[in-house]
Design a protein that fits this description.
The protein is of the alpha/beta class. It has a single domain, classed as 3-Layer(aba) Sandwich (Rossmann fold). The protein has 9 helices and 8 strands. α7 packs parallel to α8. It is globular. The relative contact order is 0.17. Bound molecules: ligand BV8 and zinc ion.
Length: about 240
């Protein structure tokens, strides 16, 4: 399971590190449905700024090592709290995106949804991506919102179910680059431990999970994951 730290070496700001995404913004204003209802243009400015930043970043060695590890493992699941889509761009076939995807737009008035970077995917030209500040639904003209999970919102059922099945059957769970404070995602590591998995935390900082993990590898994901892959490949 990964958090924002796995994308830090790609140049994507984390949330709670110094200079992180939440600085300059109150979570209540840009990370909740109430904030979106109160000021949708502010929220769209926040998400469009993140989308623009993502045009200039690429998956890093940690994303690639995880995609490579999956190809070597008989039974592997990649769970992420991240919405940046970098695991998929690194070749992970079916990332379990617990908190949605920043490139998804969903309609507040009907079931319509669309990929905001569809033109980019079609043309391979990132600058073709558009960033309207108040996008509307082509079906009902309702306001579109970013297809992410905000605080106080339920996570997608399919994602929680797949994630729980994976952590209940795994022998080893790597918890990479997360401050382990946001639930229910953070609870997955505790569930894995309770089911007897060997839980490894990979993070330069200690977190509330550190004392429960079976092993803590202190360092950057972009350095530790390739080394771990090397060890697995040679064993
Ligand atoms: C829910 C949106 C049921 C997408 C995010 C009171 C009222 C209502 C709810 C609650 C409440 N009290 C608690 C809750 C539950 C709440 C919660 O957990 N709150 C916490 C903060 C106390 N959770 C929810 O609301 C969830 N829904 O519970 O629904 C419900 C419904 C109603 C009422 C009650 C319950 C929804 C949670 C999802 C929220 N959406 N983001 C987006 O814009 O991205 S959360 C946001 O934080 C991101 O998704 C992010 O993924 C997530 C966790 O952050 P991290 O990924 O860990 O990132 P962070 O910056 O924190 O840490 C980075 C780490 O990386 C650090 O440890 C750093 O050391 C490390 N690092 C840095 N560089 C590197 C590195 N590691 C490795 N290598 C490096 N190079
Ligand atoms: Zn609609």
């Amino acid at each position: 399971m990964t958090g924002a730290g796995v994308s830090a070496e790609s140049g994507v700001p984390t949330f709670r590190d110094a200079g992180g995404l939440w600085e300059g913004h109150r979570i209540e204003d840009v990370g909740t449905p109430e904030g979106f209802t109160r000021d949708p243009l502010l929220v769209w400015r926040f998400y469009n700024a993140r989308r623009r930043n993502l045009l200039d970043v690429a998956p890093n060695a940690a994303h690639h090592a995880l995609a490579n590890l999956e190809r070597r493992c008989r039974d592997f699941a990649l769970i992420t709290q991240n919405v940046d889509g970098l695991h998929a761009r690194a070749g992970t076939p079916n990332p379990i995106e617990l908190h949605g995807n920043i490139w998804l737009n969903t309609c507040t008035g009907c079931t319509h949804y669309e990929w905001a970077d569809a033109t980019w995917r079609a043309t391979g030209n990132p600058s073709a991506a558009s960033f309207p500040d108040d996008p509307r639904c082509p079906k009902c003209a309702g306001r579109l919102r970013p297809g992410v999970v905000w605080f106080g919102e339920m996570l997608p059922d399919w994602a929680v179910r797949r994630a729980e099945q994976a952590v209940c059957r795994c022998d080893v769970m790597l918890v990479i680059g997360t401050s382990a404070v946001v639930y229910p995602a953070a609870g997955l590591a505790h569930l894995a431990a309770a089911r007897g998995a060997f839980v490894v935390e990979i993070n330069p900082q200690r977190t509330p999970l550190s004392k429960e993990a079976d092993a803590v590898l202190s360092g950057k994901a972009g350095e530790i994951m390739p080394a771990l892959l090397q060890r697995v490949a040679s064993s």
